[in-house]
Amino acid sequence: MSYQYIIYEVKDHICRITMNRPEKLNAIHLPMKREMEDALERAKTDEDVRVVIIKGAGRAFSTGLDLDFRAQWSLENDPSEWREQWKGWDQWVWNNKKPVIAQVHGYVLAGGVSLADSCDITIAAEGTLFGRPQVRQGHTPPSAWPWLMGPKKAKELLFTGNMIDAEEAFRWGLVNKVVPLEKLEEEVNRLAQDISNVPPAAVTANKRNVNKAWEQIGRLREFFRPDEETRKILEGLEEQGFLAQVRERGLKTALEERDSRFQKTAGFVEDEG
């Protein structure tokens, strides 16, 4: 099977899924997400695959949801249908019986963070920036951050939309290891090879056991998505506010206006999404 927006490769029991929209910093629209879901399901059922690596082509892992696509989509469809189309990564990554490694660099923002958080292991290049800037437009993203980094730091970032670099992300538990960019591929491949040498049934069982313990301790699955009332409020806020500005004035202008009230984060991506 061929894909338009991703690259799918399997070699030596390792599946590599590369998000391949480098001109958009691998911003994720529905066609790309559907290809990702198909690829992850394909890897799950392929007995030759023992570990999956997800990475991004070009200068970023992913800046998250393609906001141009999102703004146009709601003009042509019922906005309330969006959540049915845009389901979280837990079904394809968190619940995938194969271990999944996120190989991240550049920018890991918004939905790109959700994808990396869902992976079992995250290895980051030095200088990588992590954040959820969509909170600045009134969006409440489902987030594992309270469990990964604790409530204090999670609130700081979710209240402001500010970003942190790879070294700080490592200190707060978002990534397993930080390496120089030129060593990133080598380090991830080494780790994937070590995992592939363990009996697959044992890896699957250990992943299931760790996930189950984490979910039970934190009642995690209750917080993957906001409740229905919260959803309706936020959908209306975003549709009538930020997304309307994207449609009327363009994404770059909308982002500049959104972020102009905040202190500048070094290296902030201007062409997010």
Description:
By secondary structure, this protein is α/β, with parallel strands linked by helices. It is built from 13 helices and nine strands. The strands form two sheets. Strands 1-2-3-4-6-9 form a six-stranded mixed β-sheet, with helices on both faces. A three-stranded mixed β-sheet has the order 5-7-8. A hairpin with a 2-residue loop joins strand 1 and strand 2. Helix 11 packs parallel to helix 12 and helix 12 packs across helix 13. The longest helix has 19 residues. The radius of gyration is 18 Å and the shape is globular. It starts with 5 loop residues before the first strand and ends in a 14-residue tail after the last helix. The model has no long low-confidence stretch (mean pLDDT 85).
Feature tags:
alpha/beta; 47% helix; 273 residues; three-stranded mixed beta sheet; globular
